[in-house]
Amino acid sequence: MVILGIETSCDETAAAVVDADRRVRAEAVLSQQAEHRPYGGVVPEIAARSHLYHLDPLIRQVMAEAGLGFAHLAGVAATGGPGLIGGVMVGVMTAKAIAAVAGKPFLAVNHLEGHALTARLTHAIDFPYLLLLVSGGHCQLLLVRGVGQYRRLGTTIDDAAGEAFDKAAKLLGLGFPGGPALERAAAAGDPSRIALPRPLTGRPGADFSFSGLKTALRHRLAEAKDPPVADLAAAFQEAVIDCLADRTGHAIAMAREGARIGALVVAGGVAANRRLRRRLEEVAAEAGLPLVAPPAKYCTDNAAMIAWAGIERLRLGLVDGLDFAPRPRWPLDPSARPGARA
Ligand code: KG4
Ligand code: ZN
User: Looking at ligand 1, which atom is closest to the CA of residue 161?
Assistant: First the structure.
């Protein structure tokens, strides 16, 4: 069973061909970072136009690399949301067109479900597990019970973790995208020289808050005559990681009230942060769980995760109609109260 996956929900145009034996037969990710850099953030209209321009040749490329025609596919999966709606429309319409012409099932994949199921593609782990999903647009702790079965244990009440990294990097003049730049700068700094708060840590529940931390950083920066950028970056990174570790510890306890989780899984772009990975290893070890962290290229946005989620859904007969409407918002756990950036 081979599936074509398409990802266009933010600033990566991506296509991949993946099979049910967990083999990625071909994949390509085209980053639009250079196009958005002059604006210091992702511009939705530029993103949509760029997806439109690049997606068809990218699909042709991965199909050729896999040595397959559309007739060989078992289905076509595309991110159906949540995300920037113009980009999601490009991916969904393209997938529907291929599915209609080739007479194959179309699968609209929730982008968050793509991130949530990646660990089953890379590590073949079983349900249930606890997922820390940390990206530029999302910051959630989810109990993953099965395909389509999610319980949100915590979410951010303001900024996502990646968004916090990006804003802090902008404040410190480190450029865009901020996460990797801030991690590089932090490597040369001492996190203990500058005091920053740890919002919500020690409090019940597993929610996050990062906007106060960003404000505190702005104050520290304004106070300093000759701002020690490396120390500020290190202190900020440490504070975010402390918050993520504390909240994840709480979520493990919450998840265990109703499920026998077998692993702590981390996904999303921020999961590429090496210091965070080391810290989460400690949190997992303390709880007697393995930490499962997919390789960085499958933590950031990619199409292999969309194709894989498509395979998981197709195996259960969860196909979508060609009347599926792209969804700018699409919570994984509809029973959870809406978060600011759920
Ligand atoms: O999952 P992703 O590629 O796209 C979204 O769905 O948002 O995540 C991108 C986010 C950005 O905010 C970026 O700054 C952050 O992940 N990020 C990092 C690192 N690499 C990427 N944050 C901290 N440390 C990193 N090494
Ligand atoms: Zn993502």
Answer: 12
161 Cα to the center of ligand 1, angstroms: 8
Q: How far is the CA of 195 from the centre of ligand 2 (A)?
A: 31
CA-to-CA distance for 86 and 118, rounded, in angstroms? 25
**What digits encode the pLDDT tens for the residues 312-330?**
999 999 999 999 999 999 9
pLDDT at 341 over 80: no
Task: Compute the distance from residue 317 Cα to the ligand 2 centre, in Å.
Answer: 25
For 71-200, where are the E strands, in sequence order? Answer: 75-81, 106-110, 129-134, 139-146, 149-155
Q: Which residue has the tokens 């969904």?
A: 92
Ligand with the closest atom to the CA of 115? 2
CA 93 to centroid of ligand 2, rounded, Å = 20
Q: Which residue bears the tokens 């993520």?
A: 244
How do residues 97-135 score in pLDDT, each as one tens digit? 999 999 999 999 999 999 999 999 999 999 999 999 999
The three-class DSSP label of residue 252 is helix
Provide mean pLDDT across the span 89-94: 98
Q: Could you report how far apart the first and last alpha carbons of the chain are, in Å?
A: 33
Which atom from ligand 1 is nearest to the alpha carbon of 301? 3
99 CA distance to ligand 1 middle (Å): 31
- State the Cα–Cα distance between residues 31 and 119, nearest whole angstrom: 23
Ligand 1 pocket by C-beta < 6 Å: which residues? 10, 135-137, 162-163, 165-166, 177-180, 183, 268-270, 272-273, 300-301
Q: Work out the angle between the directed axes of helices 304-315 and 111-122 (0-180°, nearest 10).
A: 90
Question: For residue 282, what pLDDT band results from cuts at 50, 70 and 90?
Answer: very high
* Site to substitute for ligand 1 among 165, 236, 305, 330, most atoms within 8 A of C-beta: 165
Tell me the pLDDT band of 342, cut-offs 50, 70 and 90. Answer: very low
Task: Record the tokens describing residue 234, joined without a space.
Answer: 């290190």
Average pLDDT (30-43) is 87
